[in-house]
Amino acid sequence: MPVELKGVIELRKALRKYAPDLAKQLNEDLGAALKPIVKKSRSYLPSNDQMISNWVGTNGREEGRFPQYDERIAKRGVVYKTTPTKRNRRGFKNVITIYNKTAAGAIYETAGRKTPTSRFVQNINGKSYGVMKGQDKMRGKVIYRAWEEDQGKARDAVIRAIEKANLLFQTRSKTV
Amino acid sequence: MSSNVFIGIASEFDAKGFKQADNSISVLTKRVARFTAGLGLAYKAQQAVLNAMADEKATKLLAQNLKNVGLAFAQIPAENFIKQMQRQTGILDDELRPAYAQLARVTGSVTKTQELLNSAFNISAGTGKDFNQVVDALSKAYVGNNKGLRSLNIGLTQAELSSKSFDEVLTLLNKQFAGAGAAALDTYSGKMQLLKVATANASETIGFALLDALQSASGANGFDDFINKINSTTDAIARLIQFVGRGAEVITLTATTLFDEKGRKDKVSALVERIKKEERERGLRKILSGLGTSIGPRVQTAAEKAAELAAKRRAAEILNANKKITAEKKKQLELEKAMTKGNALLNQANALFDLERVGVAAAMQNQTLTDNERKRLEIKQAIFNLEDALDAKDTNRINSASKLLGGLMSQFAILQSQDSLLGQIKSAYDALGMNKDLINLTNLQEALRLLQQMNALMNGTKTPTASNSLAAAVNPTGSPYVYSPISKPYIEMGGNAAIDAASKIAAQAWDDHEKKIARTMNPNYQPVIIKVESKADDLVNFIYDTVTEQSASGNPPIVTRIGQNLAW
User: Fold this and answer.
1) Are B131 and B138 in contact (CB under 8 A)?
2) Residue of A93, A101, A142 lying closest to B11 (CB–CB)
């Protein structure tokens, strides 16, 4: 469950406007907190040799066909984002996000979550068994697995970075 | 993001969209409420209007139908009758009008139509059949087609329906189902039906919305009270609406003619005259609606009288036509009967010249038939008899012929089994390899005779001679020992053993003769032919004597088998 913060978006706007160095520092701190997760997630993606041969390819979903898996493309698709997302139906915007950009990567992430005995899942697991970790909808083999194994360290680092930037900015504002 | 796989680490709530949504929803809610309210009212009003329009259309159709059959004068009485019947029976005018039109077309009489509608209501309630179905059956039965009445299963046989006239059948039906309708209405479902009719009428006049208000405000005690209040209130409110409308018209009139005194006076007086005229018509309609078949006959107009006469004439024509049809049917039946009888006799006569039958009869005369063959011929004759009985469709003959044939078949089966048994015995003997001569009766008898002869010879006595009765039987002329090959009868004996025996006997006799009398040749030599047959010791003895005597006359005996000469 993401941590609800208030005023982060305004803070960052203010930082960009009034304290760009702090904004830059914040970005660096956020990157430092999130990059290990991303790196770990990428390591959980199998290589092309470890994937079933009839699924390996470079066709993406945008071509109108079932997306094919490619190691390089899938790994490049695991990224983090520090800009806010669109409002969801409950009215929340995600400020900091780690996500799987590619369709094939997302398919591999969640394959077996609902149908663990399907032929596709069994074939994939037969080639290279991916451990699924996490709870409910945050259960997967790649980023969810890395997040679960991280045990909240990255989250705490992100919050600390934001609080640090806020504190520095407040201090600077008072000073000025 | 192009996938749903993501981790949101920090999120922030943005209420801006929700506020917009809240505003939109409240605005939408208000609009919807206004829209549905208007829609509901419009729907109710529209439905009431639609019902009224449908009612008006049905009324016009009925009027046209009555006009087509020369009963245009009966439109108002018909409408009043229908309204009254609707209230009394719980049958909607949507059903009553077409039924009225149908019966009016068939009968041509208003009185008869109303009578049949009342009967149809009682029959429908009593049998549980649909009202329209009963009306249809009655209209068909009026012109002689009783199929509809049979399908209602009203307890009348085909014979009763055919033999009785329509009026008689109707009287019977009215008697059977008298009071059934009233009894059906005195139930919960009947009351509901009356309520349904009352509400349908109300909908046609003032709409469902007003009806709901009436229901709650009436304070009615039970269904009857509520129904009465609906009916009376409906009329009152309809008049009220009319007066209100009239009031608006007056106000409008006044406003437009405010500065025109003459015009105002003219228009007001015209309006008053119109109101008075409408009131008179309403009063008259009320009087007419109060009348009906339950109060008594009205004074008939000339047109009504003419229509009634025409209807009576038509009914008489239909009755005559039905009688003619019945007479023709009777003639047809008699003709069919006569033809059947003639055909049966024809078949019998033709049977005399049937070659097959003649052949069978001739074969039966043959005395040489075996039991098996005779039985077969008898069976064939029985088959012919049964075929004749079936053609004649005579039940008694069929039964007796069938019984006879069955008996013959059983006997034949026994004979077949006997033959089979004999065949089995023969095959058993053959299988055993026994000498059949041992069980041959003739051989046994011959052996016995020879023993007797030997005994006689040993004792010096003569062997017994044939009995006189047998001699008399074989020689009716009285001369026992003179036989001619030409004259009759012969003594006929069959079987090789018998011939052998006779041969021995003859030989013995000849030897005796030779020993005693010198043989002299007779120019009138006529050999005695003795045909040998098995059985009977007497015959054997008789042969001996015969041969002896013949030998004395110089005629050597010739012992023959039937068909063969064994010359001595």
Assistant:
1) no
2) A93
